[in-house]
Amino acid sequence: MGRMGRIWGAVPSLIGNLSEFRLANPEACYVNIAAVADLPAVNLRSIAELAGVSLMTVSRVLNDSPRVAPHTRERVRAAARSLNYQPDPHLARMMHQVRSRKASRERAVIAVVRDTPSPPFVQDPAHQYVSLPDIAHRAERQGFRAEEFWLGSGGLNARSLGRILQARGIEGVIVSPHSSQVWCAELDYTPFAAATFGYGLQHPSLHRASTNMILGIGLATETLRARGYRRIGLAVTQWVNERSQNTYSGAMLHFQQSLPADDRVPLLLFPGNALGECAGMFAQWMKTHRPDALISLDAFVPEWLAQLGLRVPEDLGLVVHDWTEGMRGFAGIDHRRGHVAAAAVDMVATQLLHNERGIPEVPKQTLIPPVWVEGASVRPLPSEAV
Questions:
Q1: pTM to 2 decimal places
Q2: Domain residue ranges of the chain, discontinuous segments joined by +
Q3: If pLDDT is split at 50, 70 and 90, which confidence band does 119 have?
Q4: DSSP code of 204?
């Protein structure tokens, strides 16, 4: 066997040894800026020594394991920050890059694709979406940078966006539809590792992260019933219901079936693109069905109730269906969008790690359980009122 034959014959053994080395040395899966700058190398052992913990504890913290106490986790993260230690998403994919000799240019960017809908598809600003800071927070923890791209803005269409992403070497995509127009459905996902939020994008069917609003509606109705409310109504927009895959209406109808007929309140679904014009529809619904508690929006609804002479919570309880930090004072359902964002980023990162691209054969779903947020817009529990 010639010299080149002996070299190529050793490649499988080299790859196997490298895999064994990585398993035995988890810190080898990370690189740091300081080392590249010819400064003293920083690895997991350096962080462990500075934080006064074991190497395994550092590895667990960097991989977000729940098996570490909060104060220990923060101490390890503080030590990593002080040493300028960052994970490198490229290194975990090194073997694929060596085999394919594929140049890596800007692969550390995850594109967040949103749309700028045109009339009549423009949704009311009362709707909430997963924010870029929430996405960026998790992306940075994974070693990526999140960057927004708006379809429809400046004439940007799906075909042009696909060319831009490929020209920049961007392979990770998170889709966040902002209307039922769903321009993002026209993007060719073949070259990308992709995930989406909620169910606004039905086709193609990607991996998706969402809040479990079957649990959310169940949590709200159970809490309200425990506080003595009997006629509980749901008043949200059609877009809210559609992008949850009709889980709002489904969960509410299921709840209504457990009630005496006299306590059932029909659903009210507003058209999502003209919420400000729905005061008359809302007033008629309220006068006809007279709910004593509402699961609805923080926008418009409090003003409409005041116009009807109804006080919150004295005359009627109000629960915000999609509670955020800016709605303090209201009781509500927190969708925990930070966790939804993290789940979508992790889906994309996992696909990149395993060199998976395109529309998945079996799309996976991660459903985040929401939490109840206490607020002055509903009466307290009877025991608390004493």
A1: 0.71
A2: 3-87, 105-211+337-367, 213-336+372-385
A3: low
A4: S
